[in-house]
Design goal:
The protein is mostly helical. The protein has 15 helices and 6 strands. The protein starts with 10 loop residues before the first helix and ends in a 13-residue tail after the last helix. GO terms for molecular function: pre-mRNA 3'-splice site binding.
Length: 535
């Protein structure tokens, strides 16, 4: 339902409004009419039919959903580039001091700055530019082809047509050269028929197009995309007949394929015939050719930087490569000098006798298997990558590195089994002392647990009936006990008969052992089944 504006309604008015909306949706009540007399669909949701509060709509309407800010002055026209208007003969007041045009000032002048402006020379007054102002609509402001002249695209078509003609002409000349060479080799004998010559002169356009499309390894670069910025380098699609490297071996335990970098370092088919394989893993490229030289260059840069050389491989690659070349030259020179010195001092006994054949061939017990083409199948050691961080550095008399031993969630040294980093190595004596200390700690803990399990036995004290300890040699006096029994009987009789109770009550807190024994003997025990038979 279309509502004019949000206003407060009572509960009864709101209920009536809901009933009216339901009736309109069911067709029992006529539809609501807007200010133009058009019926409003009752099934339109309220958030679409209700007008915003800032429009101050007094009557129900759907105009706020239409293009209610439409302006007939909007246009999609564009500026007339390079158009000129009136050209004056002399300088006018308020014109540009540099060129003399009235449409701009000296600060905004795009002409070449003159030594003496037109204001002072009154010569070569520039014509006035055509200044236009447009009120573009939403689409006009965002139209990237607004103002584009379609006639300029004919030049692009002409360039492509000229390239195509030049390509066809070049291919035809190449084909003619090949035919002339064949004719020269045949010494003038016309072996081929006229039909063959015509077929030879024809250009197979399909093959040319196919060869042009086979540059799948070409690297292209796309810039200024719709998202902005450069997308970097991308390669064309690979040949469709190629098998993806992750499909060469479908075993889950085979070589690992990294989908993010699209790399598979190990050989996916290590047991297959090398002559039938066209892919043996990325490590083949990483350990051969220029990749290995690049690794050596990086290692040299790291080591030189650690030794104080102020250069960086990524910041100055040319400098790093030049220093590496000079380093190799100096290294070879030092090797040759040291070799000459040793031979000069000790002589060269090997030069007098022929070198054994075993040394010439470089025989060893190491087995390396080659295929028919000379490639190594197995037996070659994989070169371990060298890190720029320090490795196998032993300190403080340790024979192993930190982290070579693990116990109880703690790292340590394996040589002395210490878990404190940068500690001094104590060797076997430290291990024995640590074991003895651990055994002593375990014994102490076991003794403590045993002591906690056995509770301390406490002697039970027999308390007397009136709250004191019963002495071992307690003897009751029979006469005093009889008197105490009489007093207890008299007291109970007085409690039963309130009339015999005296006004002046005397209280005596001195209780003897006989008095307590008399109270115990005459006391009524309610849980005693024989209490009714007592006197």
């Amino acid at each position: 339902m279309a509502t004019a504006s949000v206003s407060f309604k009572s509960r009864e008015d709101h209920r009536k409004q809901l009933e009216l909306e339901e009736a309109r949706k069911a067709g029992l009540a006529p539809a609501e009419v807007d200010e133009d007399g058009n019926e409003i669909n009752p099934h339109i949701p309220q958030y679409m039919s209700s007008a915003p509060w800032y429009l101050n709509a007094e009557k129900p309407s759907l105009k706020h959903q239409r293009k209610w800010k439409s302006d007939p002055n909007y246009t999609k026209a564009w500026y007339d580039r390079g158009a000129r208007l009136f050209q004056a003969n002399k300088y006018r007041k308020g014109a540009c001091e540099n060129c003399g045009a009235m449409t701009h000032t000296k600060k905004a002048c795009m002409d070449r700055p003159r030594n003496v402006g037109a204001k002072y020379t009154n010569m070569n007054i520039a014509p006035d530019e055509k200044v236009e102002s447009f009120e573009l609509d939403y689409d006009g402001k965002r139209d990237r082809w607004n103002g584009y002249d379609t006639s300029t695209y004919t030049r692009v078509i002409q360039d492509y047509e000229a390239r195509e003609e030049a390509r066809k002409k070049f291919l035809k000349e190449q084909q003619l050269k090949k035919l002339e060479e064949k004719d020269g080799e045949q010494d003038g004998e016309n072996v081929a028929s006229e039909e063959d010559e015509e077929d030879g002169l024809k250009i197979d356009e399909a093959k040319v197009d196919e060869s042009a499309q086979m540059d799948f390894a070409k690297v292209e670069k796309r810039v200024r995309t719709t998202g902005g910025g450069s997308t970097g380098t991308v390669r064309n699609l690979r040949i469709r007949e190629d098998t993806a490297k992750y499909l060469l071996n479908l075993d889950v335990n085979s070589a690992y394929y990294d989908p993010k970098t699209r790399s598979m370092r190990e050989d996916p088919l290590p047991d297959a015939d090398p002559n039938d394989k066209f892919y043996v893993g990325d490590n083949q490229n990483r350990l051969s050719g220029q990749a290995l030289e690049f690794k050596q260059l990086n290692v040299h840069a790291w080591e030189a930087f650690d030794k104080g050389q102020d250069f960086h491989m990524q910041a100055a690659p040319s400098q790093a490569e030049l220093l590496y070349k000079s380093f190799k030259i100096k290294k070879e020179k030092l090797k040759s000098e040291s070799k000459d010195k040793i031979m000069e001092k000790y002589g060269n006994a090997a030069s007098d006798e022929p070198i054994p054949r075993e040394l010439l061939l470089g025989q060893s017990e190491k087995e390396i298997e080659y295929d028919r083409t000379g490639r190594i199948i197995k037996g070659q050691d994989v070169a371990l990558p060298k890190s720029k961080y320090e490795e196998d550095v032993l300190i403080n008399n340790h024979t192993t590195v930190w982290g070579s031993w693990w116990k109880d969630h703690q790292w340590g040294y394996k040589c002395c089994k210490q878990t404190i980093k940068n500690s001094y190595c104590t060797g076997l004596a430290g291990i024995e002392a640590a074991e003895a200390s651990a055994d002593l700690m375990r014994e102490n803990m076991a003794r403590k647990e045993a002591a906690e399990e056995e509770p301390v036995r406490q002697e039970e004290k027999k308390l007397a009936t009136w709250g004191t300890d019963i002495p071992q040699d307690l003897v009751l006096d029979q006469k005093l006990l009889e008197e105490s029994l009489k007093k207890e009987a008299k007291r109970k009789k007085e409690e039963m008969d309130e009339r015999k109770r005296k006004y002046n009550v005397k209280w005596n807190d001195e209780v003897t052992a006989e008095d307590m024994e008399a109270y115990r003997m005459t006391r009524v025990r309610h849980d005693d089944p024989m209490k009714d038979f007592l006197n």
